[in-house]
TrEMBL record:
It comes from the Bacteria. This is Release factor glutamine methyltransferase. It is an enzyme of class 2 (transferase). Residues 96-187 form the Methyltransferase small domain. CDD domains: AdoMet_MTases (cd02440). Methylates the class 1 translation termination release factors RF1/PrfA and RF2/PrfB on the glutamine residue of the universally conserved GGQ motif. The keyword Methyltransferase applies. It comes from Pseudoduganella lurida. One of its GO terms (biological process) is methylation. One of its GO terms (molecular function) is peptide chain release factor N(5)-glutamine methyltransferase activity. The keyword Transmembrane helix does not apply. Substrate binds at residues 182-185.
Length: 277
């Protein structure tokens, strides 16, 4: 059944009768009416026009059907920057900011950085925006994702070289000081793929269609040919994959192999260094 909101309903009345999470309600109402959060508070007795009521009702129905708020409003904040998002790319998440922070700690002046599977460009753009001296290259196999990423780089005034590539193919013969990646790592058939926002996000950016480690294996195996001696590889992975990823790095001879925990205490990023030759 579709949500019906009558013209003339006040913002205060909408809040009282909302079927949405209060935060979702506020974000979608601000978006539908073009108001800031402060405006929503100061105009609590404002009455909706017919067009405003219909616009908000449509957003409510889509949210009740499970569509992510970020897709409904078209953007999401990440590392203090505004990113355009849509069904072609994953929604940037706070957990991934750990990967950005770890990368920044390892960036020497004018470092060359490679972001693999860039999606919305969140990692690459955050690095390039924070460290404009860095030479950042970002790869993705999806042309649609690259279009979104390029738009985000322009929007955030960050200089990033974007390449269409199946992993390392487009950077054959090139080397970097640091390689970062948030690749597909959810195992095929994992119940989380049919829950929450993940139902609406691009499956190819979430799962490798196998055991969740195939993309990580490809990156671990290929990175030594593209890292300078002593260069770092940093990868985000699933909540229960740190031991497996550490093992992959150890088998390939990486040094200083370790994992780092996110704010929830989950081992979220694992990395290592290519041996000094």
């Amino acid at each position: 059944m579709k949500t019906m909101i009558a013209a003339g309903t006040t913002l205060a009345a909408l809040q009282r009768q909302s079927m949405l999470d209060p935060v979702d309600h506020r974000i979608l109402l601000c978006h539908a009416l073009g108001l800031t959060r402060t405006g929503l508070i100061t105009q609590s007795e404002r009455a909706l026009t017919g067009d405003e009521a219909a616009r908000f009702a449509a957003l409510v129905d889509r949210r009740l059907a499970g569509e992510p708020v970020a897709y409904l409003i078209g953007h999401r904040e990440f590392y203090g920057l505004d990113f355009r998002v849509g069904p072609a790319v994953l929604i940037p998440r706070p957990d991934t900011e750990l990967l950005v922070e770890l990368a920044l700690e390892r960036l020497a002046p004018r470092s060359r950085v490679l972001d693999m599977g860039t999606g919305s460009g969140a990692i690459a753009v955050a690095l390039a925006h924070t460290r404009p001296d860095a030479q950042v290259t970002a790869l993705d196999v999806s042309p649609a994702a690259l279009d979104v990423a390029r738009a985000n780089a322009t929007h955030n005034q960050a200089t990033v070289r974007f390449l269409h590539s199946d992993w390392f193919t487009a950077v054959a013969g090139e080397t970097f000081d640091l390689v970062v990646s948030n690749p597909p790592y959810i195992p095929d058939g994992d119940r989380h793929l049919s829950e929450g926002d993940l139902r609406f996000e691009p499956a190819g950016a979430l799962t490798d269609g196998a055991d969740g480690l195939s993309a990580l294996r490809a990156i671990v195996a290929g990175a030594p040919d593209h890292l300078v001696p002593g260069g770092w590889l940093l990868m985000e992975h699933g909540y229960d994959q740190s031991a497996a990823v550490q093992a992959l790095l150890g088998e390939r001879g990486y040094t200083e192999v370790q994992s780092w925990h996110d704010l929830a205490g989950i081992a979220r990023v694992t990395g290592g260094r290519v041996r000094l030759r």
